[in-house]
Amino acid sequence: MSIEIEKNMQSKTGLKTEQMVLNMGPQHPSTHGVLRLELEIEGEIITKVTPHIGYLHRCFEKHTEAMTYTQVIPYTDRMDYLSAMYNEFGYAIAVEKLLGIEVPERVEYIRVIMGEFQRIASHLVAIGTYGLDIGAFTPFLYCFRDRERILSLFEKTCGARLLYNYIWVGGVSHDLHPDFIREAKDFVKYFKPNIKELNDLLTMNKIFIERTANVGILPVETAINYGISGPNLRASGMKWDLRKNDTYSIYNKFDFEIPVGQSEIGTVGDAWNRYYIRVRELEQSLRILEQALDQIPEGDVTSAIPKRIKPPVGQVYSRVENPKGELGYFIMSNGSTSPFRVKVKGPSFVHLGIMNELCKGHMVADVIAILGSIDIVLGEVDR
Fold first, then answer.
1. pLDDT band at 197 (very low <50, low <70, confident <90, very high)
2. Lowest-confidence segment of 11-15, 227-231, 319-323 by average pLDDT
3. Are 19 and 47 in contact, with CB atoms under 8 Å apart?
4. Which has the minimum average pLDDT: 29-43, 133-147, 167-181, 330-344?
């Protein structure tokens, strides 16, 4: 360390300290994928965090230029692979907007049902692994137990448990299994009391609160300036959800609320609120599912699927509220059967940019609590 820096540190703190660079990841189990965080620390205090990405580059956007519009769908699954059904949902809406086609009402209901089941499944992974990061093993098992039931519903519908290729442009690949509605309603009834169990076990746990409350506070103005969206923005007190504020599909037909951060425990915008928003969103997804499962009409789910997709020259931007935040697709068509350009705005990539802002002044152990609270998937960051 140079003499000037050493003198500067002594004048600020009155103590002689030494700055150190610490690498966290990509092998670290708490980095939620192959991510390397370069931490600059003075003693145990963080002065700067620099995320290093690119270890899981999927080349999604470049791949799309060599694929037809239909062939792109399986690639969307592989970005945020914990929200694959919603990735397809957003892409299908964008291409349909480019083509100017309208899908049957039954298709819209199926998409919303699958999308909200995917939201619950994604949040269960976020909640379970977050508890695991901080040392709570049992909630992880409970969350994955319930997620398995959702994956079984997906498997019964399209044969896959993680990467689906189910929502197609103009419709879905095939109709619901005859037992799907009954089993989906059974799950809703089964899962409701489990949210209380989760709150008793983890949310109100004294150790968990001490590790997360008042840690990594994100003021709403800072969140807006950084382009934060989804649960992370709502935890900071901003009542913003594309399903209501810029509605798409048939979300305007359903009655549900938008949970926002609260100051009963900790501070609005802290790590505990980011966690708890996802717990509360489980309840709202169940509300949407109850209504959609009761109202779903009959109809042909493949009648609007075009035999050949060749949009006119033009461009479109479409966005949806995926489990992690705003997922946007910009598609440019040159009139051929393959997109000229597909650009994705992924929430995980945007949210990773806030890490330095959230971590400065905290201790090294708090980095784990902060990173887990923003809920990222590296497949989308490195798309």
1. very high
2. 11-15
3. yes
4. 29-43
Q: How far apart are CA 222 and CA 234, in angstroms?
A: 13
Q: Cis omega (within 30 of 0) on the bond before 26?
A: yes
Q: How far apart are CA 151 and CA 252, in angstroms?
A: 27
Query: What percentage of the chain carries pLDDT values higher than 70?
Result: 96
Number of domains within the chain: 1
369, 207, 341: which is closest to 275 by C-alpha?
A: 369
Question: What secondary structure does DSSP assign to 119-146, as a single string?
Answer: HHHHHHHHHHHHHHHHT--HHHHHHHHH
**CB 214, CB 370: distance < 8 Å:** no
CATH number at residue 318: 1.10.645.10
Q: Is residue 94 one of the residues assigned to a domain?
A: yes
In which domain, by residue range, is 341 found?
60-358
Are 34 and 57 a contacting pair, CB within 8 Å?
no
User: Would residue 130 count as lying in a domain?
Assistant: yes
Over the chain, what is the mean pLDDT? 93
pLDDT (tens digit per residue) in 208-266: 999 999 999 999 999 999 999 999 999 999 999 999 999 999 999 999 999 999 988 98
Asked if residues 296 and 110 have their Cβ atoms less than 8 Å apart, the reply is yes
32 contacts: CB under 8 Å, gap ≥ 6: 129, 371, 372, 376, 377, 378
Q: Report in angstroms the alpha-carbon separations of 272 from 68, 105, 130, 143, 209.
A: 43, 39, 11, 18, 7
d(CA 54, CA 272): 29
Helix axes 271-295, 180-198, angle to 10 degrees: 150
Q: Which of 56, 59, 47, 1 is nearest to 25 (CA)?
A: 56
Tokens of 51: 């995320």
Close Cβ partners of 173 (under 8 Å, ≥ 6 residues apart): 158, 165, 166, 167
Q: Dihedral sign, CA of 243, 247, 248, 254?
A: positive
The number of CA neighbours under 13 Å toward the Cβ of 228 is 30
